[in-house]
What we know:
Blueprint: H1 12-24, E1 30-37, E2 40-48, E3 62-63, H2 68-81, H3 113-117, H4 127-130, H5 138-146, H6 163-177, H7 181-190, E4 212-216, E5 219-223, H8 232-235, E6 238-239, H9 241-252, H10 266-272, E7 277-278, E8 290-293, E9 298-302, E10 306-315, E11 318-325, E12 331-336, H11 343-360, H12 384-402, H13 406-412, H14 415-420, H15 423-437, E13 447-449, E14 455-462, E15 465-473, E16 481-490
Antiparallel strand pairs: 1-2, 1-12, 3-6, 4-5, 7-8, 8-9, 9-10, 10-11, 11-12, 13-14, 14-15, 15-16
Helix pairs in contact: 1-11, 2-6, 2-7
Amino acid sequence: MTELPPAVHDVVEQVDAVFRDRVERGTAPSSVWGVFDRSGLIASGGHGDRGDGLRPDADTVYRIASCTKSVTAATLLTLVADGRLDLDAPITAFVPAFGAVALPTPDSPVPTVRMLLTMSAGFPTDDPWADRQESISDAELDEVLRGGLLFDTVPGTRFAYSNLGYALLGRVVAVVAGRPFPEVARDTVLRPLGLDDTVFSATETRGFVVTGFRPHEGDWEPLGMTGPGAFSSIGGLFSTVRDLARWATHLGSAFADRPEPGPVSPADRRLMQQAMRVVPPSVVAGSTRATAYGFGLFVEQDDRHGELVSHSGGYPGFSAHMRWSVRDGLGVVAFENATQAKVSVATVQAHDILLRATVGTRTASGADATTGSTDGARVAPGADATTRATRAAQVAVTRLLADWRDDLADAICTPNVAMDVPYDRRRRAVAAAIASVHADLSAPPVDEQSLAPSHLRWWIPGACGRLRVEIRLAPSAAGLVQTLHVTAEPSEQ
């Protein structure tokens, strides 16, 4: 296990304990995890027996199952970028056998590539069935289509997790590129990024390959490996913690000031991580975050940390999960080798521990001790000017609170501020709030939060409480304040 940066070093044992506990409780024979940030893998650990008497490490090979879908989506987007594929083309343009499928209503559209990418083609959720289809041939998949399909919804109207949809996307890639999907994904995305331990067959791996198990009569029953086939694009990849952390770092870098170059453009990588389809709460039972699906990735909305991107993987004998923060790229990947182990639960817990720790490292000036960012609000390239304007407005508002003058308020606020609450009322309310907590307006903020680059909320310390100040800028480049709230928060008696 390598060392985390000092700002979060004190939580590494907590993260490790999350996964150690799962092995000790018998959730899986082995568990391995890694933490990464914008620089790549920064810590890893493993527990249990990987099959040769050793603990798993960052280079031990597991099946990553549906984490493969992000690679499938990325591979497909390279064809779109080359002008060889239209996202709104119907699937029948690439898989003629789909023409035999009776659509659910007379006016139903034929599912498009975009619908398949966003899990909105109308197919039923199909994990148990699809997980056993990896090795079937294209001809066998065609026979399934010619036999007809069930639909839960009209294509293009609702999210439902569909492996069949991503199997069809693998065929799209193969037809457009003129080569088998695994070859195209390998040569177009994986090898250019140096992901040499991420492969579609156990025979191609360089490291130790872990055997998958399922629980049976109080023991672990080993399961065989399936090989590449028509469903490889849904979850056929083998990988390591080191490689998957590298892949997640690359995807997350699309939101950095200087995105990494790669076979998939930063713009397309950002596109993958956009909320395209709302995911019903029943799909993510127990989650407290609103969730959507992009292209091969889930996107969660967190009130404090912004967008969190993730994907799970589950195959007979294996469980995988990867997740990261769009804001700062801090993330966790983890694998276990047991059917239905749901390592996602532990990975979410570990990631939340890290996120809470990094929030605690933000300085009074808003700088983040882990990332070095002075802008906790930045969520995408191009927001630097907005951030500077918000910081300038913060300074001006602090000056206004210390010595309210209407002419100064006019200079830093949009006209609606005076229209919404007249200045004389604001002046009295601000003075009363400051006095009630004896706020020290010369002191630096004790905490800051931001929902967007144009928004900032900060707290000023007082002798008997603190003062909460919140601003939001109007869209004009002048950087004027359209919302100004000042609230006293007295100390508990």
